[in-house]
Specification:
single chain; 260 residues; alpha+beta; NADH Oxidase; four-stranded antiparallel β-sheet; 47% helix; 12% strand; binds flavin mononucleotide
């Protein structure tokens, strides 16, 4: 292991979800559990365009996901324009470079075989990013107390009185974390739906978040309003490689009945 690879050990992903040679169903009527078991991150994509109706269909499936308080504060930007994709490709290559520099620290044990293969796929994707048929940005409105809430002095005093000091302290302490997590947990189910729907249409896709290294620049190119966060960028296209069984930690290692 390199110096850079030292650190907390990455969990070993040892169990194939399906026998390596089992048939992999693709299509809108593929059994959902088989789909989940064989939905790997697909980074090598053909440049062939994806029909607009298909892209709209997978975003529709994303909107079927639940969101906290049923707020549905999501927004999806779908980019297919070649000029814009070229602009995004420059940003993408930059953030991949940053990530690759960090990879050994972000992903301890990053120099094993699986990660060498992943690094190859990342390099391929970065080099061909301008050819990506479609990029979908999953966004969600950032919450936080609005001006009207803050200005409502009497309402806030009443609330503080009703809660009492101990509960108020707990509310204030948890509010910041809860706010950020609530938004993320309201958009990622939609992103997973999007990945599943893409797969149903035979499309390869990957959930990515490294735009966060340059969120302001991605936000500018994508025209995302300031009060919305970009939570995932999902490159989508017909895969060059094959769908296949995911390799994960054995479930018995992760499953705790009644108590951890
Ligand atoms: C929260 C989250 C963030 C991710 N961010 C990235 C990313 O920035 N770039 C990337 O190429 N893949 C990203 N991935 C994909 C993972 O690297 C991938 O799912 C994981 O390595 C397992 O690969 P597999 O599904 O092919 O087995 C992300 C996945 C998740 C769930």
């Amino acid at each position: 292991m390199s110096e850079r690879g030292r650190g907390p050990q990455r969990a070993e992903a040892t169990e194939l979800s399906r026998p390596a040679d089992a048939a992999v169903p693709v299509g809108v009527d593929a059994p959902i559990l088989d789909v989940m078991a064989t939905m790997r991150a697909m980074r090598r994509l053909k440049p062939d365009p994806v029909p607009r109706e298909v892209l709209a269909e997978i975003v529709r499936a994303a909107t079927w996901a639940p969101s906290g308080s049923d707020a549905q504060h999501y927004g999806f930007v779908v980019v297919t324009d070649r000029g814009k994709m070229a602009e995004l490709a420059e940003l993408w290559r930059d953030v991949v470079e940053v990530y690759s520099e960090l990879m050994g620290t972000v992903v301890p044990g990053a120099d094993d075989d699986r990660h060498a293969r992943m690094a190859d796929a990342l390099r391929h994707q970065a080099e061909h990013f301008h050819e990506t048929p479609a990029l979908i940005a999953a966004c969600y409105q950032r919450s936080g107390p609005g001006l009207s809430t803050l200005a409502d002095v009497r309402g806030n005093v009443d609330l503080a009185r009703r809660l009492g000091p101990a509960r108020l302290r707990r509310l204030v302490a948890g509010a910041r974390t809860a706010g950020g997590l609530a938004e993320a947990s309201s958009i990622y189910p939609a992103v997973q739906n999007l990945l599943l729907a893409a797969r149903a249409h035979g499309l390869g896709a990957t959930l990515t978040i490294w735009h966060l290294f340059r969120e302001a620049d991605f936000r500018r190119v994508l025209g995302v309003p300031k009060d919305h966060g970009i939570y995932a960028l999902v490159p989508v296209g017909y895969p060059l490689g094959n769908f296949g069984p995911v390799r994960r930690r054995p479930v018995d290692e992760a499953l705790h009945w009644e108590q951890w």
